[in-house]
Amino acid sequence: MQRYKCIVSYDGTGFAGYQVQPGKRTVQGEIEAVLKKIHKGEAVKITASGRTDAGVHAKGQVIHFDSSLPIPPDRWPQALNSMLGGEIAILSVEKVTPSFHARFDAAGKEYRYILYLGKQKNPFNRNYAYHYPFPLDMAKMEEAARHLIGTYDFSSFCASNTEVADKVRTITGICFKKEDDCLVLSFRGNGFLYNMVRILTGTLIEVGTGAREPADIPALVSARDRRLAGKTAPAHGLYLWEVFYEDSGEESKTTKPGV
Amino acid sequence: MQRYKCIVSYDGTGFAGYQVQPGKRTVQGEIEAVLKKIHKGEAVKITASGRTDAGVHAKGQVIHFDSSLPIPPDRWPQALNSMLGGEIAILSVEKVTPSFHARFDAAGKEYRYILYLGKQKNPFNRNYAYHYPFPLDMAKMEEAARHLIGTYDFSSFCASNTEVADKVRTITGICFKKEDDCLVLSFRGNGFLYNMVRILTGTLIEVGTGAREPADIPALVSARDRRLAGKTAPAHGLYLWEVFYEDSGEESKTTKPGV
Predict the structure, then answer these.
(1) Does A132 carry a binding-site annotation?
(2) Within this chain, do residues B53 and B117 fall inside the same structural domain, yes or no?
(3) Which pLDDT does position A162 carry in this prediction?
(4) Which residue segment(s) compose the domain that B228 sits in?
(5) Cβ <8 Å between B11 and A124
(6) Are B94 and B125 in the same domain?
(7) At what angle do helices A138-146 and A196-209 cross, to 10 degrees?
(8) Is residue A86 assigned to a domain?
(9) Would an 8 Å CB–CB cutoff place A126 in contact with chain B?
(10) Residue B105 dihedral angles phi and psi, to the nearest 5°
(11) Is residue A134 domain-resident?
């Protein structure tokens, strides 16, 4: 039995999220169905670095699975991609040690949130960016973001129905980049709570409109109360961009701190 | 009665093309349905600069329609867009003289064809670019394109079932631009025959692979035989990018000759 680590990209638009749900079309369900075919009817479970919600995209989701088929790693992507539809792409497959775990070994993640700021709606990014055609004060948003860098209990930025006990996470960087008519927010950290990036984005938007002040952020973090933070930004602007591992037989990548 | 000229953008993926067809979802059908609602049940016909096929996109299709509703031009886009789905966007509406005709007055058009050259499939452009992950000799393609600039009978580059009598058209420019992993081909001319841009693209691809030589193009044009040209490139890489008018109450734009 060989364990494989895969980098996977998907357009989340047509899926009820990553995780298998009975009667629903999910990313995990599609990939496992293809693996089952390749393994002649034998079920193969895949494990991801974490779930993504309905409509959320991935540029670099990471999964692992075990197989005893004698397929070389460089042939696996083609084998899987030819049977998967166009919405999911296996970008790479590499052999890893049997102890590698896509979720438990993840040392950090980068998410990106894309805001489309154009005045007119754009049919080509309607599922890939959140259309926000109102003025935003980027300097204030960046100032607010600096208050979010560090290790905090992020309960204020976590969906209230989450059952995770420990809500302490470290955000190592939040970057802002204007690309044409879009504003791309990149969030790096050691881990993110349920809906955390979308709530952080919604709160930063409220700073950008002037509804909140950057100086209000530290008290908002300290309050540990979801009701005090901003709206949850829509799913379709969010991308799981990259997952970082310290040691998995591949070259390690480290997150760089700072905005 | 006032005549209006509109610039319209649409994602062609979900449509059976531009033109109304019984029982099918089309761009014209969607826009006319919304105009009918706005006019309280009265049918309003729209006229476009030309049709686009199923899967073909538009960044700047032009249509005209007549209305006696007292809606100012700058309010029309919002009125229409709020009732149209996300796949169609009315980018602008302006008053024109009653003699303006979106099709007959069109002095020229620009189409673009986007080739995605990346090795890996990309879930995010699968409907918006033709994935061609093989080497292409761009210098040869540009040399071939230069033989296509000018006024010719383009029968070799026209779907054979077309009933247009006069197949003489003028191509004023073909531009090549690399954008990240994509190659964008821009075609400008006074008009294009059915499937012409897709057949030109398919033929240029065959030059890029070495299957044809640039020097063979003049004989291919002279032959006026569709069977001798290249494959019709897929619809989903094609965009009607802009339509040019000499005089419609707006500033006129002229096409620039040359590759």
Answers:
(1) no
(2) no
(3) 75
(4) 110-244
(5) yes
(6) no
(7) 130
(8) yes
(9) yes
(10) -90, -5
(11) yes
Whether A247 shows a pLDDT value over 90: the answer reads: no
- B112-170: pLDDT as tens digits: 999 999 999 999 999 999 999 999 999 999 999 999 999 999 999 999 877 788 999 99
pLDDT digits (tens, 9 = 90+) for B93-107: 999 999 999 999 999
Q: Quick one: how far is CA B57 from the chain centroid? A: 7
The DSSP line for B27-95 is: HHHHHHHHHHHHTTT-----EESS---TT-EEEEEEEEEEE-S---GGGHHHHHHTTS-TTEEEEEEEE
How many other C-beta atoms lie within 10 A of the C-beta of residue A55? 18
CA-based nearest distance B116→chain A, Å: 14
Last residue of a domain, one of A54, A75, A104: A104
The backbone region for B44, taken as left when phi is positive above 0, alpha when psi lies in -120 to 50, beta otherwise, is beta
Q: What is the CA radius of gyration of chain B?
A: 19
Do residues A83 and A38 touch, judged by C-beta distance below 8 A? Answer: yes
Q: Are residues A100 and A114 in the same domain?
A: no
Tell me what ipTM this predicted complex has. Answer: 0.89
Report the C-alpha gap between A227 and A215 in whole angstroms. 18
**Catalytically active residues of A, by annotation:** 53
Beta-bridge mates of residue A177 = A184
Chain A closest CA to B70's CA: distance in Å?
Answer: 23
Q: State the number of CA atoms in the 13 A half-sphere of A209 facing the CB.
A: 11
